[in-house]
Amino acid sequence: MSGGGDLTQSDRDETQGFPFTARSRPSTGRAARSFIPRTGRMSPTKYRALAETLPKYLIAPEPSIDFDAVFGRRAPLLADIGFGMGESTLALAAARPDSNILAIDVHVAGHAVLADALEAGSITNVRIIAADAHEVLLWMCRPASLSEVHIWFSDPWPKQRQAWRRLVQPDFVALVAERLVAGGTLRMATDWQPYADDMLGAISATAKLMNPHTDWAPRDPIRPITSYEQKGTDAGRPIRDLVAVLCRTNIS
User: Fold this and answer.
1) H or E element at residue 194
2) Are 106 and 131 in contact (CB under 8 A)?
């Protein structure tokens, strides 16, 4: 299996965890990122996974990548944004064996955990991209190239003064719509009601997207209950799922 994106220590030092270098990183036009890089202390096992296993699955950042060539097959392309420790990605890989899955996240420990799980399970339909999801969709993915985009429990930035940092905003949802194929689906979930309201508003503000539900969608049966979701449930916060579908006819 060939990945082709060895994330070296010098890359991490220069870009705080992202393989885009200071010279190659494109601008997304956003004033702030929707995340703060977290590395922290890692076990020798995770460091081994980063050095030995991750390069097999990591995709180097390049504009308008031919993902069929990367995966070695033509198949529907699915983006799992913010995969954390990889539970959602592994569930998607099992449920969508006929899809090529892009696992997108910036946190290094999760890269190690997911890479080891992919290797242990001989899972061949997943590749990892260690970069800002906005950059990935804007510069690496071609228009009308994604069959599905999943954003499950992205950072809600719960303080009102930080809400502008949230990933899911009208500009990002509009970008997702441009990258979806006709009939493609955006699936989101959050345990933070103000963020859920913003997600719903962003869908409504994107003319090309249709919400097949009045507001909230039923729970996606593929989505596993992660420790993050469980914390929200234990705190009494309702879990909100949202679905939007790209209309098959153009709407101006």
Assistant:
1) helix 193-204
2) yes
Q: Residue 28 burial by CB count (10 A; 0-12/13-18/19+): exposed, middle or buried?
A: middle
What single letter denotes the amino acid at residue 250?
A: N
Strands 180-190 and 240-246: what pairing? antiparallel
Give me the amino acid identity at 191: D
Q: Which residues are catalytic?
A: 155
83 touches 222 (CB < 8 A):
no
Give the HSE-up count for residue 9: Cα atoms under 13 Å, Cβ half-sphere.
3
- Torsions phi, psi for 152 (to 5 deg): -105, 110
Task: Over range 55-79, report the average pLDDT.
Answer: 95
Give the whole-angstrom CA distance, residue 114 versus residue 54: 8
Note the pLDDT tens digit of each residue in 149-195. Answer: 999 999 999 998 888 889 999 999 999 999 999 999 999 999 999 99
pLDDT band at 43 (very low <50, low <70, confident <90, very high): low
DSSP state of 56: G
CB 140 within 8 A of CB 115: no
Where do runs of H (alpha helix) occur along the chain?
Answer: 9-15, 44-48, 67-71, 87-95, 108-120, 133-135, 170-179, 193-204, 227-234
Q: How far apart are CA 237 and CA 190, in angstroms?
A: 9
| Six token digits for residue 189 | 């979930």
